[in-house]
Specification:
α2 runs antiparallel to α6 (130-148), α4 (109-115) crosses α6 (130-148) and α9 crosses α11. By secondary structure, the protein is mainly α. The chain contains eleven helices and two strands. The longest helix has 19 residues, at 130-148.
């Protein structure tokens, strides 16, 4: 499942290159190295790029990595749901290490429920908060069987009724499992969206709502993966690697490293 971000240190580079989507119509694409003379400014907050510049930002992400993928490993929607629940306050690599043997024996809600909470705790004990996460995984597996016929629901509202599932988790599952154009805001995406800035906000929900307004529709399905991977491998928290950034000429972050 892992596909390499253009700046990622490891993984397989995506080879497919679908026809480029038209995001800004026949006009308004910003030439490389130039910013529009005027950028949109809200009544309060930082200056944000205009629509043409936003389209150019996502065009570059698309051209560099047309089909980005999340880095959590899974085999079906139910194991994806479990993996995302386990990934809270944990690294994807750490979750993958624990779930590879787990999913080999428990890849459905019924099998997970049959495994039981104590063996599950033992299987995921290397993951932070593993006791509470094991309890949630068993409880959500039971609810998937009793309320949804063993299938993962496709709506955010239904997903958020499951133990351990919040808005971000629901958005990830809807996007990856079902192709919904949702935007899951993690710490990396939150940082990048505020730095560029694409959708400045004080809360993850504010950033999510802001991105939904500005990301061109053809790029919306993969937007959160591009931004998360960009934040993880390039626009890092302590020292962004601006020299390798695809959009450094369009970014307005004041503390650039170039």
């Amino acid at each position: 499942m892992r596909v390499k971000h253009p700046s990622s240190p490891a993984g397989d580079t995506a080879t497919s290159r679908p026809r480029q989507a038209e995001a800004a119509g026949s006009a308004g694409v910003v030439p490389t190295g130039k910013l529009p003379a005027r950028a949109g400014r809200g009544r309060k907050g930082p200056v944000v790029p205009d629509a043409a510049t936003v389209a150019e930002i996502f065009r570059r992400f698309h051209d560099a990595n047309p089909e980005p993928r999340g880095e959590l490993e899974y085999v079906n929607p139910s194991t994806l749901l479990v993996a995302v629940v386990l990934s809270a306050q944990a690294t994807d690599a750490g979750v993958n290490k624990a779930t590879r043997p787990l999913f080999a024996i428990a890849d459905t809600p019924a099998k997970m429920l049959a495994l039981g909470e104590e063996p599950l705790r033992e299987a995921i004990k290397t993951i932070g908060l593993y006791r509470n996460k094991a309890k949630n995984v068993i409880a959500l597996s039971r609810q998937l069987i009793e309320r949804f016929g063993g299938e993962v629901p496709r709506s955010r509202e239904a997903l958020e009724t499951l133990p351990g599932v919040g808005r971000k988790t629901a958005n990830v599952v809807m996007n990856i499992a079902f192709g919904a154009p949702t935007i899951a805001v993690d710490t990396h995406l939150f940082r990048v969206a505020n730095r560029i800035p694409l959708a400045p906000g004080k809360t993850p929900l504010a950033v999510e709502m802001g991105l939904e307004k500005v990301v061109p529709e053809p790029y919306r399905r993969h937007a959160h993966h591009w931004l998360i991977l960009h934040g993880r491998y390039v626009c890092k928290a302590r020292k962004p690697d601006c020299g390798r950034c695809l959009i450094n000429d369009l970014c307005r972050y004041e503390a650039k490293t170039i």
